[in-house]
Amino acid sequence: MPVRGSAARAAGVRRPAAAAGLVAALLVAGCSGARELPAAPAAPTPSATPPDDPSASPAPPAGRPSTVTIALAGDIHFEGPLAVRLRDPATALAPASHALAAADVAIANLETSVGSGGRPEPGKRYTFSAGPAALTALAAAGLDVAAMANNHAVDFGRARLPSTLRAARRAAGGEPPLAVVGIGADVEQAFAPALVDVDGTVVATVAASVADADPTADPTSQWAAGHARPGTADAMDPQRLLRAVRRADAVADVVVAYLHWGVQGDTCPSPAQRRLAARLVGAGADVVAGSHAHEVQGDGRLDAGYVAYGLGNFAWYSPGPTGVLTLTVRPPTAPAGRARVTDTRWWPATIGPDGLPRADTGSAATASASRRTALRACAGLRAP
């Protein structure tokens, strides 16, 4: 069995993604065999919330880590000054690599069409495009999972999608590997989770777009995957997304729902975001995170889950504040238990004129921490 997670980093080896979101039958291989993703239950199964005090919980099963770390970042593209970075994918996001690669699992949103062919969508003010090297760059920077359920993934039309899906399959089998979620050859693949095995603890990531609710955004429903049609995971009707989370919860120890949502330019989540976050936590999501507003929004505890409403831009052609949110998560210790975030760490950074994030220090880091506290208040979330 491959060395994974923290043990892999200690050995100088990058942890592999156990499965990509573009694989029809998702399996997580373990020392005791493989587990297949089950059919969705009709309704979420009630589960007990572990106590707030981590010391009050029983020890995890022998051989499993007591906690896993999950790094979350926002929107990435390779436009403007970032385009030239893809000439050397291995160092394209170098200033931010450490903050991502230090975690057991790192997740971000890739906000661009990937591949070749097709034409810019008529009527769109902004169309983003990158070659398959974009996926190589994300993997080299330490990302394990890239979400592509967003309003720029199909900027060059459905004609490009076959090359997008080929690039995603190659990325999943690359070294280091990268799982791509939120896009697929059909609706089942688009909503399929990426599963990452961290020394026996399975972390699932489901991605979907609900940005069409934002009147300032480009429509995304026209690119939604169907039963025999490639496209993105569209969750304007959240029922399929909720089912996907329940299915992931049945097979994984930790479930992350990464969404493209909210209103561009807003620093506080919309009422629709807050309602959907609560439903996702109720369906079994341990972590709910997202992007699209191009602003950092609040993060904190919501009932049994943890929510980071907006992670802002990360590698982008517009300078501004950004960061990486790293969560320490304790997996469930009993069949009826829930995973729980026990600690958080914010890597404060600022995107410079070159489009790359670099760590804040001194007064800039202090200001970032204060801004985070204020944003949590307007999001209605509790401190961890």
TrEMBL record:
Q: Region annotation Disordered: residue ranges?
A: 39-66, 213-234
Classification via Pfam families: PGA_cap
Q: Which domain of life is it from?
A: Bacteria
UniProt lists compositionally biased (Pro residues) regions at: 41-63
Domain annotation Capsule synthesis protein CapA: ranges: 69-318
Query: Which SUPFAM superfamilies does its entry note?
Result: Metallo-dependent phosphatases
Q: Which family does it belong to?
A: Belongs to the CapA family.
Protein name per Swiss-Prot or TrEMBL: CapA family protein
